[in-house]
Amino acid sequence: MWFRRKIKDKATPDSSKDSAANKIAITIIRTQQKFADLLAKKAEHLSHAKLKIMLLSIGVCWFGWSICLVIKGFITNGSQQITLQINRMNIPKYTDHTGEEKLQPQWQVTKDDYAKLQKFRKYMDSLAENNKRSYDSILLTRPHLMDTVLALENFYKQQNR
To answer: Would you say 26 and 7 are in contact if contact means Cβ atoms under 8 Å apart?
Structure first.
């Protein structure tokens, strides 16, 4: 009884949707309460031993039914298809990588490449001193050439720390 009063006190509708939902909820709770009262009246005359036996038998029945459903899911009858199949799961490529591999450069500057860079730098320095016109024309056609050479040299030095 106290349960119903509590629900009625809380049922202050703000809108028509809330009032409809509250009415439905109150009806469901009243039905549950009536069903619980009915079961309590029927179980009043039963002893504790009989109640325990009933509870155990109901539990055994539900457990058996659940086991039957699980087994039925794996068993086939001739032409029927398998109800529950266990298929291989496709795992996307590279799910076990952290991503740090991508941070590492794909290429490296080898000792031979570094020697070629040093040779090219000496050549460009000699052009800058002896043949300024050729040096300027090379830098006009390739504006960031010496910046790239410097970046590659720095990369080689960082790589070999």
So the answer is: yes
